[in-house]
Each structure stands twice: as C-alpha cells, then as structure tokens.
Prior knowledge:
Elements: E1 2-5, H1 7-15, H2 20-33, E2 39-42, H3 45-59, H4 65-77, E3 80-82, H5 86-101, H6 105-117, E4 121-122, H7 126-135
Parallel strand pairs: 1-2, 1-4, 2-3
Helix pairs in contact: 1-2, 5-6, 6-7
Amino acid sequence: MRLVLDNSVSMRWLFGDxxxxxxxxxxxxxxxLEMPEAEVMVPAIWSLxxxxxxxxxxxxxxxxxxxxxxxxxxxxxxxxxxxxxxxVHALDGSLQLARxxxxxxxxxxxxxxxxxxxxxxxxxxxxxxxxxxxTGVKLA
Length: 140
C-alpha cells in the first residue's frame, strides 16, 4: 500500500499519547507500513517537523536523546520517500489549499502531495481531515 504520512501520526508512535482512537489509528497505520509492499511518501517539510517536535520534547525533558535516536533509527528503517517536488508546489498548489481550507502551509503540503500522487493520507489532524473530505482524498 502506498500512502502519504502526516507528522501527527508519526509523533503518536513516539509518544503514544492521546485518546484511544488516535493511538489505535496510529498503530494501525504502523501495522500497514510494516508490510513489505508498503511505501510511504512525505513532503520535504516532514523531516523538519519530526526534528522540531523531538527538539522541543527534549528541551522540556519529555524525551531523552537516547530515546530520540532510537526512534529516528526506526523511522530511517522504514520505506519513507521524501517528495523532492514539495518546494516546487509550495507557492501554488499548497498555498491555494492553505487559503481554501484555512490550513497551515505545512499541513497543506501533505494534502497537496496526496492530491498530486492520488494517494490516501494518514493523519490525526482534524482540520486536515476536514479538508480531505472536501477534496476527496481518502484517509489511509
């Protein structure tokens, strides 16, 4: 299965926090990604979002550097493909989606990638899910 992965899901794997439905959904996506044929796409901003959440959590002593390194190693073992065209579409497609649906440009980049590639999107973000319904993007 091919899909676009939002940072909200990957961070749920790291912290395991949130409601039962959110944790169950994140674990379901992880199970799907462990299949040999799974391929994950992310916009170029994803790595920076991951790094930002980790750096902030470490600064607040919510996460140790050792745990962060272990998690990053797990992410690097996954078949995650970073979209090289994110910046090309940032000032047109992503910006238009951000305007249309009141999303951050970061969130709009996930939606833009899903639309461009015709892939479902794995996300826990409420606003992004709302925009997905309006554009016909399926939830992974």
